[in-house]
Amino acid sequence: MNRRERAAAALVLAGLATGGGWWLTTRPEPPPPPAAADAAPPPAPAEAESGIAMSPEAMRRAGIVIAPLLPRPVPALIRAPGEVVSNRFGAGVVTPPTTGTLIERRVAAGDRVRQGQVVGTMFSPEMAEAQGQFLIADREWRRVRDLGREIVSARRYDEAEAQRRQAMTRLIGFGLSPRQIETPGAAPSGQVALVAPRDGVVATDAVAVGELVAPGRVLFTIADERTAWIQARVSPAQAAALRPGQAATLRWDGQTRPAAVRALEPAIDPVTRTVGVRLDTANQDGALRAGLFVEVELPVDDGGPVLALPVESVLRGPDGDWRVYVAGADGRLRPVEVTLVRGAGTLAVIEGLAPGSPVVTEGAFFVQSEAAKGGFDPHGH
Fold it and tell me: Of the candidates 171, 189, 207, which is a domain's last residue?
């Protein structure tokens, strides 16, 4: 590069330097952020107090009912777990009257039997011996009776009669009737018929043919299912509010049935620290089987009148608070927060509203849905 070219290059570089500095010092500043006063206004809040307006015809079609909130007596409910147990007043057992061997059984668990029906047969050496003794005593008594008191002494006459009576009593104890005892061949030698003590259903049959059984052994249990017992447990404080004869309700598998308290145990269970309550109820259909678990509802008096609504009229809001819909003077339905005091079956006891307030008692969920569509504040704040 010659001297002239070097000079030209120097002039170009000097010009670039001068222009670049000017650009750096004169570039435009970014616009400042808009002031708070110039910011875009937030969306206008919904009118919390506007409520929802519905014509009487629309309310009728939707099944919405408005009624004044009036004090009413609402019994408190005690809820307790319960279990169906065998009705001990309506149950009977079949036990052998003497030691022997079971040679036949005629029923099994679940079979329905009638009182006096033979459910099994056993063979007993004692029975055979007793039958033989009766035959001897009966023959002697007949001989003495035929001779008459004119020939036989009074003592001998009385002894023969007493021995026959004793032998018959022993056989009656084995389950034979006087007719069977006195009819020759009516009862096979040594065989004892086991009979049902009452009408009912065979609940248990813990015996097998050929088994040696002794007195006191329960061979069959006959249960009367027409009345069921329910055993429930409550705290001592709850038991103090209960009394025999008090009405109750049983709930299980979507079914309900009325029941009544029959007795309260006198002692507190040392393990669970609870008091046993026995209830009973009609069970003609046999739906309440022993071992079934149920929920027991026991209404008890809880003082004076309170403000209560159907449980479906008290709804939860998005913030978890309880609320009901109240009709204003302008006819609009507005949500009002309330305090849920307790539940009482199909009713909810509340606080936070004045008595006489017109509230939605039916169709509250529909009102809530329509309110959400309309965009007004569902909190009612």
Answer: 189
Q: Is residue 326 part of a domain?
A: yes
Question: Among residues 159, 131, 130, which one has the least CA distance to residue 144?
Answer: 159
Domain residues for the domain of 317 are 56-74+304-374
Domain contains 355: yes
Q: Which of 156, 189, 222 lies at the terminal end of a domain, its last residue?
A: 189
Please tell me the total count of domains within the chain: 2
What's 115's DSSP letter?
A: T
Amino acid letter for position 203 = A
**Residue 112 near residue 201, CB atoms below 8 Å:** yes
168 within a domain of the structure (yes/no): yes
Q: Is residue 251 part of a domain?
A: no
First-to-last C-alpha distance (Å) of the chain? 86
Three-state SS at 65: strand
* Residues 222, 205 contacting (CB under 8 angstroms): no
Each residue's pLDDT, cut to its tens digit, for the chain (381 residues) gives: 555 555 444 444 444 344 444 333 344 455 555 444 444 444 433 334 477 888 889 899 999 999 999 999 888 889 999 999 988 888 899 999 999 999 999 999 989 999 999 999 999 999 889 888 999 998 998 999 888 888 888 889 899 999 999 999 988 888 887 887 877 766 778 888 899 999 999 999 989 999 999 998 999 999 988 899 999 999 999 999 899 999 999 999 999 999 999 999 999 999 999 999 999 999 988 899 989 999 999 988 766 789 999 999 999 988 889 999 999 988 899 999 999 988 877 889 999 999 999 999 999 999 998 888 764 444 444
